[in-house]
Amino acid sequence: SSTIRVQSWSFCIKSRFYDGKYTEQRACIKFCFKIGKNATETFKLIKLAFRDVSLSHCVTFDWFKRFKEGRISNEDDHRPGRPSLSKTNDTIDLVRNKIRNDRRLTVREVANEVGISIGTCHSILSNELDMRRMTAKLVPTLLMEEQIEHRIEVCLELKNRVSYDPNFIKSIITGDETWVYGYDPEIKVQFSQWKTANSPHPKKCRQVQSNIKAMLIYKQVLERLREIVRRKRPEVRKSKSWFLHHDNAPAHSALSI
Known about the structure:
By secondary structure, this protein is mainly α.
């Protein structure tokens, strides 16, 4: 165990020398220059003090020359860093074209096709192209122009009716249904696309339910509904002025029964 402690202590001392050897030895070179030593004498003293971790002959003489010419700092000069060779205008245009052809590609897929790293690809999409991954907005159905106009007309008609009959809304009773899917529907994340901040939000029509769907015990449900209306809304039942609106009927094709 004593051998292990000695080896560990020796490793810590050597690591400390390696971590600060550059600035520490440059300070020593600067001190030798200040007291009148020449470059050869300075190198011998550095070699004597730091032994196997000392600066080389060329580096010692180079820094001695710098201090002799008036350099003050013994730190490295600031370096701007190596320029990125992959984030070029050609690469940015290539990424833009890949996204335009298929906006559902992932960052990894685009990076593999273009031949750049995932980090560079994500930086190009986020910073240079100002794109974000956005999920599609689910809408009940993708309507045609005339269907949209018809919906507006119906909404205006209902608004006008409420304006002169405030109790009209209270006479509406809504219902829903149970759907049985015969397949695995696509989730919203799987339909997400790359879009800029000013581009329109993608839309996806809600998928049509399976052909094996069935309205379950519909007659019994209506009988229970009639009894509940009789007990909880007797004034509506007596006037026979209430409306049953099912959520399964689109507004542009619903029929009054």
